Amino acid sequence: MHRVDPVGAGDAIRARVPDVLRTYQETRVNVIERGVVDADLKRLCARYLSGDPDVVTFEDGDRYDERERAALGWAQAIAWDPASADDELWMRLHRHFTEPELVELGYCMAIVHGQLRWMRALGVPPRHEDALGY
User: Fold this and answer.
1) Measured between alpha carbons, how far is 99 from 14 in angstroms, rounded to an integer?
2) In the chain, how many domains are there?
3) Does residue 105 contact residue 97 with C-beta atoms inside 8 Å?
4) Do 10 and 134 meet the contact criterion of CB atoms below 8 Å apart?
5) 86: containing domain
């Protein structure tokens, strides 16, 4: 048992500016951990964005259901290929998600992707299993 929770590299860096750490912690609680979209689905998308080899090939095989694939396609469009947010993707997304869910999932992926890129630029490698906790 830990007497004090360990601090990850990301929070150690953010703590240099207390308002940045506080803002990120609020975002993590309100958007990443809570909200209208299941946190497990957000974690799956974060693992994809972190480059987790178990997730990057999400379109191959039947490992992920249609809802998960739609969410991963949304993460892909947000992070790397906005043109892939075509009519077909939007139809899939609307089949599985409400507009509030799409907004929350999109915002979450934008935050996660930005944090991952920032940490990589600082030389902090991604932790695939906990990409949301960066």
Assistant:
1) 31
2) 1
3) yes
4) yes
5) 9-133
